Amino acid sequence: MVGKPADVVVALDDDALAADAGFHHVGVDGALREKIDAADRTTQALVVCPTRELAAQSAEAFVNFSKYTPLETLLVQGGTSMDKQIRALRSGVDAVVATPGRLLDHIRQRNLTLKNVQWLILDEVDRMFDMGFIEDVSNIIRYCPKQRQTLFFSATMPDAVLRLSKWALKDPESVGVGIVHSPADTVEHFIYPVDGIQKYDMLVEILKGLDDVKSLIVFTRTRMDADRIGEWLEAHSYSVSTLHSDRSQRERDKALSDFKEGKTHILVATDIASRGLDISNVGYVINFNVPEHSEDYVHRIGRTGRANKEGKAITLYSSDETEFLKRIEAFIGGHIERRKLEGFAYRTEPRLEESVAKKRRRNR
Known about the structure:
The protein is α/β, with parallel strands linked by helices. The chain is 38% helix and 17% strand. The protein is built from 14 helices and 13 strands. The strands form 2 sheets. A 7-stranded parallel beta sheet has the order 3-4-2-5-6-1-7, sandwiched between helices. The chain has a 6-stranded parallel beta sheet with strand order 8-13-12-9-11-10. Helix 5 crosses helix 7 and helix 12 (294-301) crosses helix 13 (322-332). Residues 14-31 and 355-364 have low confidence and may be disordered.
């Protein structure tokens, strides 16, 4: 490809932009329409995303940007009809937005070739590492031609991601956009220490104390917890959607759309919803568990307090999560305030002592 544009590594912390940024860089809203040969009807642009929800959102953005062009875009993901995707691929598509597993299924069954890909976009690369997709992503890259432009988006740049970028990209340009390791100023965030066995009761008590629950996300560590919390809240007459990877694609789509449209007011989700997804006007975030990964704390509570609006994020913390909390405070470089929920019947009085990290700094 003569005059191939430079490869790009983008460290992108603003999740609301993540779904669209790659498309702007390759010029979907202008230059890409002119560069892709729609008459060719072979796949020339490929976007790889870690989750079905992010892939669907990205495909929608791609379709919107190319609305008044003859370009054809196909969403390739698991949980949906393989036959329908095969028929579309055989008819010819210009751009494919895909999750790694289903994309490799089509490649290995020879339903799709990547030999004509000129633009490869890898979105949320650090998340693909966390989800165990790195081998799949590496194989996908190998199926693409060496002469291409690659755009590499990642909210964090750990050593493993940097090594992949050095292997997959050639002399890349590096761009940092809004990289921060701390919550936004618009988010009030604090912790309620509580015995683990009382978290379910405390969650309901917190909800009772909120003025108006129109849009609230409860994050939990496991899929089993998500189901249990959803059932618990429904038993207390709250309108709830539940989102995690064990749900069927139809259930996942409905959960997300119902929450976005206000048909349900609470979304209970694993970290599948913590990054990348464009969910606006979330007033509250509640961490049912302290996140294991420090970055996830910032991403989770970053679902609220967006677009200069104020938000509130509450984390339920039990003593067995102390190490996770220490790492989060070290990561954000500050102490997270502990509070007592007034009126709640604690089994044991909560300890509101300052973080170990803060005490150590004071004693130096």
